[in-house]
User: Which sequence fits this backbone?
């Protein structure tokens, strides 16, 4: 076990990693119209630029969390940052829309290694009484990545083209890998010697792929077939995990640990309700309002900046007060912000839109780090890798569902065509429907956030 003094080093490296991937994700959203023009993408292809990344990340998060628990979290973490950086380099030379989507899959693969281990390592080296503070700082880095993405992404796209967004990832990734190799001592592998459930990992990946890809094809017949097939495979996967000695995913955690169950469900609902907001507003500001990419990015920076300001205080507060109550308040504020977005239109003033983004930022800031604190504090120490992967999976599956809703709405209201001025009214109507569905989903999520236990407990020992 590495010495405790590595805690600050781990936190700094986690900050870099926490900034890197959300920066890339949000910056790409602002560059989608530029990508669409260069490669003649239709609306659904634009959606797949984000969806391919999210699907690959979701499929591999839990398997890499388990591999990290067995073979070493630092090793998986460093490999993930290296792979993400390599994919960013290759993206600079992408010749087609298909190449962009495939490289986004490779980026998602690296992102799964990063998010399946970063929170686990940080939780391992941080004393329980300071965990909320550390996670709040880490969450701030994530939100800064989200905030700088639209802002810098818009400027870079306007000045140097969309490929420059991926060039920014390269020095950050190389610096993070250098810090890990030079300064991060030791290794974390608390379940060394246990077997990795390869069969379960394959079943898990196929299950998620069917469900997520099928959801993106709804309301078509193929979409319903894939979702139903995914549900059947999920039942088979759960039955397998309950009977083997070393499961990929300890399903019993969901039946015996209410905090773990409902905190993860709350995360799933929260991300499912909110992720597509940036996607829609980026298109709204550029198509409906006629803003340039850099100006649209400057407007969208408001929400994650507010999140970054609120999150550290929320994390520290969750060390002293039941984190479930704080997260529930954040969920309620988020639902309120989504409700307001239903009413935006051609004549909505910029002041009103910024005020809505502030409400959303406050809500998400008060939800995320307390909810993470509740999850990581509710499991056994040696289960941190899989718990981190589980939380990341809820986040990515939620984001994937959010993009699925967005793509389905675009298919219903706009169709598989490029968005042109004559389709602006249909796009705006579809966006309002998506925001209404998201608000209802977020309101339902308040239930999951409120029903967890008063105070999580912690113990040692690998899950059996």
Assistant:
């Amino acid at each position: 076990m590495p010495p405790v003094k590595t805690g600050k080093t781990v936190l700094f490296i986690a900050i870099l990693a926490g900034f890197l991937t959300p920066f890339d994700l949000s910056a790409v959203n602002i560059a989608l119209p530029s990508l669409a023009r260069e490669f003649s993408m239709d609306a659904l292809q634009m959606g797949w630029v984000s969806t391919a990344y999210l699907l690959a990340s979701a499929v591999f998060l839990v398997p890499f969390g388990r591999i990290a628990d067995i073979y070493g979290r630092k090793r998986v973490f460093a490999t993930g940052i290296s792979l993400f950086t390599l994919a960013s380099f290759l993206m600079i030379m992408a010749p087609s829309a298909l190449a962009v989507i495939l490289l986004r899959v490779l980026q998602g693969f690296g992102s799964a290694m990063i998010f399946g281990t970063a929170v686990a390592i940080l939780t391992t080296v941080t004393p329980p009484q300071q965990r909320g503070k550390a996670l709040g700082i880490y969450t701030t880095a994530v939100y800064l990545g989200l905030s700088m993405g639209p802002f810098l992404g818009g400027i870079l796209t306007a000045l140097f083209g969309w490929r420059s967004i991926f060039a920014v990832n390269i020095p950050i990734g190389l610096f993070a890998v250098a810090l890990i190799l030079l300064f991060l001592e030791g290794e974390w592998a608390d379940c060394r010697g246990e077997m990795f459930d390869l069969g379960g990992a394959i079943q898990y990946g196929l299950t998620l792929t069917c469900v997520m890809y099928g959801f993106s094809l709804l309301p078509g017949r193929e979409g319903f077939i894939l979702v139903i097939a995914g549900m059947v495979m999920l039942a088979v996967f759960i039955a397998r995990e309950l009977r083997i000695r070393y499961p990929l995913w300890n399903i019993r955690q969901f039946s015996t640990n209410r905090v773990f169950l409902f905190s993860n469900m709350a995360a799933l609902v929260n991300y499912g309700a909110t992720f597509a907001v940036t996607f829609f507003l980026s298109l709204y500001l550029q198509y409906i309002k006629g803003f340039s990419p850099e100006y649209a990015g400057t407007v969208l920076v408001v929400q994650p900046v507010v999140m970054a300001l609120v999150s550290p205080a929320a994390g520290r507060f969750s060390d002293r007060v039941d984190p479930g109550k704080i997260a529930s308040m954040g969920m309620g504020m988020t639902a309120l912000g989504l409700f307001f977005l239903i009413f935006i239109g051609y004549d909505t003033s910029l002041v009103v839109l910024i005020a809505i983004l502030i409400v959303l930022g406050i809500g998400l800031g008060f939800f995320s780090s307390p909810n993470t604190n509740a999850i990581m504090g509710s499991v056994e120490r040696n289960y941190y890798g899989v718990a981190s992967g589980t939380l990341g999976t809820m986040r990515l599956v939620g984001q994937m569902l959010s993009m699925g809703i967005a793509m389905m709405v675009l298919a219903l209201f706009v169709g598989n065509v490029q968005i042109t001025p004559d389709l602006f009214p249909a796009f705006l109507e579809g966006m309002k429907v998506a925001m209404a569905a998201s608000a209802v989903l977020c309101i339902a999520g308040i239930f999951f956030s409120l029903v967890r236990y008063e105070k999580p407990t912690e113990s040692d020992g690998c899950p059996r």
